[in-house]
Design a protein that fits this description.
Low-confidence stretches: none
Radius of gyration: 25 Å
Largest sheet: 5 strands, parallel
Bound molecules: flavin mononucleotide
Distance between the termini: 71 Å
CATH superfamily of the largest domain: Flavodoxin domain
CATH topology of the largest domain: Rossmann fold
Order of helices and strands: EHEHHEHHEHEHEHEHHEHEHEHHHHH
Helix content: 40-55%
Oligomer: single chain
CATH architecture of the largest domain: 3-Layer(aba) Sandwich
Number of domains: 3
């Protein structure tokens, strides 16, 4: 049996993920693992159609496909995303259709589920029989128990191919509306005061719904807003995963392209950020993914604190809750306030115009009021993963993060809440006594829970 391993790490063979796959290979010596460094070779795959065809033919010869990649910003690396786009663009779906595939990732488990959801959806779109996914932590391979689990996963994948095990389809095709947005300038203007509004778009076609929506949004304000096309930015390539930035936030591209300078001078200086993109497969474009991945120079710092953000999306966003979650997480993890989304899904130009006008008012008002709604599990849970990792395993090499977290009180471990811990210990001790237990758990729990809130309300 031959397994085509599609390596998504831009680091090629020097990849953590690939070491896990080498382990699987060692445990399955009867079978042949063929490696394709698609992320590292993305420029060649893109430019050289013959090379792309040759690689596709070799993948075609395999019995199964293993999508193996590192998690990058809740998804696959931008180079891998581009590879997926090329498969559809060059009509190579048939190479994959009917084959069994599995997904293997390494990460720190930060939004690993969204990357796996995405890939499962892509497998469905390609007509692949999705045999399951495995999300390994970066250090799992050192643990003999974890190795057993990984080994089981590999064996199970191969058995699924051999036995042609039936699979459940969880993702069905995305349906697009055939609709042309007719833009109309908004007459009622929103006053944005002295707030700087920056719209980032990736639209390449002035006649597209997205371009029209961005222009309508522009017309909603009484002063100018800045619109920048991320395709026109000087970005030489996707994040290379080299971690040069971990020491002092200097990116290895610095001096060769303009990304970090742009991010520091434009994105970080805006008060209101609008991200505008068109759905491509089950995410936005790989260009957008590249833009997000390259933010990694700032590592795990929430650098958009106090800003308002919103999204203008062309395409079936309501059918892609996974994408929506990723976009909201992006904002929450940067500690900005997500004001919402406007899309063209209504299929009615007047309604879309109203949505855009509403969004314009919303971002301006929230910015003036300094509003920031509470983060949900996406931001709260995500920050806890970062906090723990930066404090422990990732303290080295992420030196810049460590000092930033320390300085800004982001190491907010509950152990530090001494008074709360003391009180909890006292009450825990008291639960040893039957009388206390009965009184609290049977009679007073509800009243005691609201007592401090009631007293607060009386004094406000
Ligand atoms: C640009 C970038 C983005 C990342 N994003 C995530 C992420 O969203 N979630 C996560 O758990 N790990 C994330 N990581 C960590 C990598 O997934 C992890 O280090 C992985 O094991 C690297 O594998 P590789 O050596 O095969 O490239 C990110 C790393 C980089 C460089």
């Amino acid at each position: 049996m031959t397994i085509a391993v599609l390596n998504g790490s831009p680091k090629g063979e020097k990849s953590v993920t690939m070491n896990y796959i080498k382990f699987l290979e060692k445990k399955n010596l009867k079978h042949k693992f063929k490696y394709f460094n698609v992320s590292q070779k993305i420029a060649k795959l893109e430019k050289n159609k013959e090379y792309f065809k040759k690689e596709m033919a070799a993948i075609n010869d395999a019995d199964g496909v293993l999508w193996a990649f590192p998690l990058y910003y809740c998804l696959v690396p931008s180079q891998y995303k581009r590879f997926i786009e090329l498969i559809f663009k060059r009509r190579a779906e048939h190479i994959f259709s009917g084959k069994y595939a599995a997904v293997f990732t390494t990460s720190i488990h930060f939004f690993d589920h969204t990357a796996h959801n995405y890939m499962e959806g892509i497998c469905s779109d390609l007509g692949i029989k999705y045999a399951g996914g495995y999300s390994a932590g970066m250090g799992d391979l050192f643990d003999p128990e974890e190795r057993k689990q990984i080994e089981y996963f590999g064996r199970n994948f191969i058995t699924s191919i051999q036995k042609e095990t039936a699979v459940l389809i969880n993702y069905y095709p995305i349906e697009w509306k055939n609709f042309n947005y007719k833009e109309k300038d908004n007459e009622l203007k929103t006053d944005q005061g002295n707030k700087k509004i920056l719209v980032l778009t990736d639209s390449t076609n002035p006649g597209s719904n997205l371009s029209g929506m961005v222009r309508t949004f522009w017309s909603c304000f009484n002063k100018g807003i800045e619109i920048i096309n991320i395709n026109e930015l000087d970005i030489k390539g996707g994040c290379l995963g080299c971690l040069r930035c971990a020491y002092d936030n200097i990116c290895s591209y610095d001096g060769n392209d303009g990304y970090t300078e742009f991010y520091r001078n434009k994105v970080m200086k805006a008060d209101i950020l609008i991200y505008a993109g068109t759905v491509r497969d089950r995410y936005l474009s790989s260009r957008w993914k590249m833009f997000f991945d390259r933010q990694f120079f700032k590592n795990h710092k929430p650098v958009l604190s106090g800003k308002q953000a919103a999204f203008i999306i062309s395409g079936p966003l309501s059918q892609l809750p996974n994408l929506r979650e990723i976009l909201e997480a992006e904002i929450q993890m940067n500690m900005a306030n997500c004001c919402g989304f406007a899309t063209d899904e209504a299929g009615n130009s007047a309604a879309i115009g109203e949505q855009l006008a509403g969004l314009a008012e919303k971002v301006a008002e929230a910015s003036t009021a300094g509003y920031s709604k509470p983060r949900t599990f996406l931001g709260v849970g995500g920050m806890k993963i970062f906090r723990d990792q930066i404090y422990s395993h990732l303290r080295f090499p992420f030196k810049a993060d460590y000092y930033y977290y320390k300085k800004n009180g982001l190491f907010d471990f509950p152990q530090k809440k001494r008074k709360e811990r003391l009180l909890a210990s006292i009450f825990l001790f008291l639960t040893r006594f039957k009388g206390f237990r009965e009184e609290v758990y049977n009679h007073r729990m509800k009243d005691e829970m609201v007592k401090p809130l009631k007293s607060l309300l009386e004094n406000i």
